[in-house]
Structures
1.
Amino acid sequence: MKFTVEKHERYVIIEPLTDVLDGTAATKLKGEFMLRNTGGLRNIVLDLGQVKRADEDGLRMGLLARRLCKASGGLFILTGLNQELKDMLKLAQMSEYFKITSTIAEAENMIFGNELRLDLKEEQA
């Protein structure tokens, strides 16, 4: 499975180039999440604009990314979900675990708001 990685100063956008997010794809993405997080990026945006459906393993890999980002004070955001993926997350009772936006611009705004909050917190300490 191929994916694109668009690195920015405070976040990275990862976009799987596949129709199906399954266990094989999830394994490759998990490695990428860990690499980016340990490399100092605490904010990850997963753009699922090209993904049409996912299985249970595909959905669960997001939980690892969420934990990695949260542990470092960052955010893991899903964007570009079609209705089937949104419904699957709700059915699996996982939608409340994820930050979900309609667009990358919304995800960026969420990240910058969180980063500003963290910067202010550090200044006060």
2.
Amino acid sequence: MSDRKVIALTVNGEQRELALAPNRSLLDALRTEAGLTGTKKGCDVGECGSCTILMNGKPVNACLVLALEAEGAEIITVEGLQAPDGTPHRLQECFMRCGAAQCGFCTPGILVAAKALLGETPRPTTDQIRFAIAGNICRCTGYTKIIDAIAMASAEVQR
């Protein structure tokens, strides 16, 4: 007898069913069962933000969510930011133009957190940007280029 439970959820616009152990984190389910490795596993205790995804439109640390809690949820990962034809999201473009990614490990979580911010506050202040990404730790930069990239993406929406 299997202790797995099947959950149905929408991941990056696609309806999915995943058979999961009750103790499986949403992060591990996305990376392993769904094959979406863009979401990174950093600290695995909710402190670094590398695993940030959108769950029902809100940024969450996927390592802190049991996958079974995502039953019926709409999940957006970093892979879901780009257009169906593979065109990068404007945030991804701005990160590239500003050189906002160095090692890139934190970048998926920061991009997703920034998407949530711009969805709620299309023209954020620098302080609002800093607050929105405060849960995402980057060990390579001083955040200046990251903040510049998010501000650039915001400005491009306003055109």
